[in-house]
């Protein structure tokens, strides 16, 4: 009788959904240095550490994209656009909206900061379900994102010599666009100022 040797076993997490999650987590944590955590629908990014996030309707966000440094990461999930901004910006949003006289109007503009999470967009070049978050402008591995993020202390000209636009200008533009989108959705009449 010849002894039989069992066939080799495939390593765990090869090619299955768990492997994909592991590769995505590795990309965020090792290539970008961003904190992640498991979430109900997959991997999530922790906000408030390296960046905060401004969330607004995608329609409004498209009009704001030109005000961002082209290297500033921007994600889209469904009809929500997520603009990465400097850590600590979420705490400033309510005060900025009041100071810019947008505080009394209902806007679809929110911020996610310390203790918050967003669904991790699928890294560039990977297939993703339609409802999953995806990068419109992905972060570049090995590059610090902090210099490209809009911050309260940034003093640069919009459309000028590069660098991140000030958070004040970005929030004002985002609030304006959110208000326009809200007016368009609630009114059948064209706007006189568009």
Notes on the protein architecture:
The protein is α+β, with helices and mostly antiparallel strands and 194 residues long. It has one domain (23-186). 28% of the residues lie in helices and 19% in strands. The chain has a five-stranded antiparallel β-sheet with strand order 6-3-5-4-8. It has a three-stranded antiparallel β-sheet with strand order 1-2-7, covered by helices on one side. Strand 1 (36-39) and strand 2 form a beta hairpin. Mean pLDDT is 82; it is low at 6-17 and 154-164.
Write a concise keyword list for the protein shown above.
194 residues, alpha+beta, 8 strands, globular
Question: How would you summarize the topology of this molecule?
Answer:
Blueprint: H1 17-32, E1 36-39, E2 42-46, E3 51-57, H2 58-64, E4 74-77, E5 80-86, H3 89-99, E6 110-112, E7 117-119, E8 134-137, H4 167-186
Antiparallel strand pairs: 1-2, 2-7, 3-5, 3-6, 4-5, 4-8
Helix pairs in contact: 2-4, 3-4
β content, as a range? Answer: 15-25%
The major beta sheet can be summarized as: 5 strands, antiparallel
**Radius of gyration, taken over Cα atoms and rounded to an integer in Å:** 21 Å
Spans with pLDDT under 50 lasting ≥5 residues?
6-17, 154-164
Overall structural class, as computed from helix and strand content, comes to alpha+beta
Please outline what is shown here.
The protein is an alpha+beta fold and 194 residues long.
């Amino acid at each position: 009788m010849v002894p039989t040797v069992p066939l080799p076993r495939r390593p765990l997490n090869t090619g299955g959904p768990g492997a994909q999650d592991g590769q995505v987590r590795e990309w965020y944590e090792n290539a970008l240095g961003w904190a992640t955590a498991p979430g109900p629908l997959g991997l999530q990014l922790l906000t408030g550490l390296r960046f905060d996030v401004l969330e607004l309707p995608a329609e409004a966000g498209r009009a704001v994209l030109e005000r961002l440094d082209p290297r500033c990461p921007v994600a889209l999930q469904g009809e929500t656009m997520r603009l990465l901004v400097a850590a600590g910006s979420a705490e400033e949003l309510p005060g900025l909206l009041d100071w810019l006289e947008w505080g009394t109007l209902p806007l679809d503009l929110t911020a996610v900061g310390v203790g918050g999470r967003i669904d991790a967009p699928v890294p560039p070049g990977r297939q993703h379900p339609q409802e999953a978050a995806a990068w419109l402008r992905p972060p570049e591995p090995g590059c610090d994102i902090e210099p490209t993020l809009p911050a309260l202390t940034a003093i640069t000209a919009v459309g000028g010599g590069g660098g991140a636009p000030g958070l004040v200008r970005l929030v004002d533009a985002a609030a304006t666009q959110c208000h326009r989108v809200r007016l368009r959705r609630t009114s059948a009449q064209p706007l006189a100022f568009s």
